[in-house]
Amino acid sequence: MERNDEITNVTAADFDREVLESATPVLVDFWAPWCQPCRVIAPVMNSLAAEYGERLKVIKVDVDDNASLAAEYHVRSIPTVMLFAEGAVRESFVGTRPPQVYREAIDALLR
User: Fold this and answer.
1) Strands 26-31 and 7-9: what pairing?
2) Contact (CB, 8 A) for 44 and 51
3) Do 109 and 90 touch, CB atoms closer than 8 A?
4) Which is nearest to 39 in space by CA: 8, 79, 6, 71?
5) 35 labelled catalytic
6) Catalytic residue among 19, 27, 28, 35
């Protein structure tokens, strides 16, 4: 696991602990370094991490290095962003989305 400011890079080895067992909601960005749309939403993920602080974890999973996780969560296209709470996927977004789309899902979950 590698932490970069408010975003944590997670592997299959620590996914359960960091995401499924988390006491707070978790936004997971399934991405790859070669993916241009993934680079487009990276600043959005950074902004959300800073905006929500301790109320939300923001996690990145490199699908090239963690193919088993991508398969387990049926990630067929990247970026795929999933919002987890209490160990389950609550929302899933494929492709780039405006920041407000993520905020609305996060805010609905935090209510």
Assistant:
1) unpaired
2) no
3) yes
4) 79
5) yes
6) 35
> What type of residue sits at position 66?
N
Map out the domains of the chain as residue ranges: 2-110
Q: Which among 10, 38, 75, 81 is annotated as catalytic?
A: 38
Split at pLDDT 50, 70, 90, the class of 94 is very high
Residue 39 host element (H or E): helix 36-52
What confidence score (pLDDT) does residue 4 get? Answer: 44
Tell me if residue 72 is catalytic.
Answer: no
The residue with tokens 């795929």 is: 80
Residue 23 DSSP class: S
| In contact, 11 and 63? CB cutoff 8 Å | no
Q: What pTM does this model have?
A: 0.93
The Cβ of residue 40 has, within 10 Å, a number of other Cβ atoms equal to 12
Domain 2-110 of CATH type 3.40.30.10 = yes
Tell me how long the chain is: 111
pLDDT of 3 reads 45
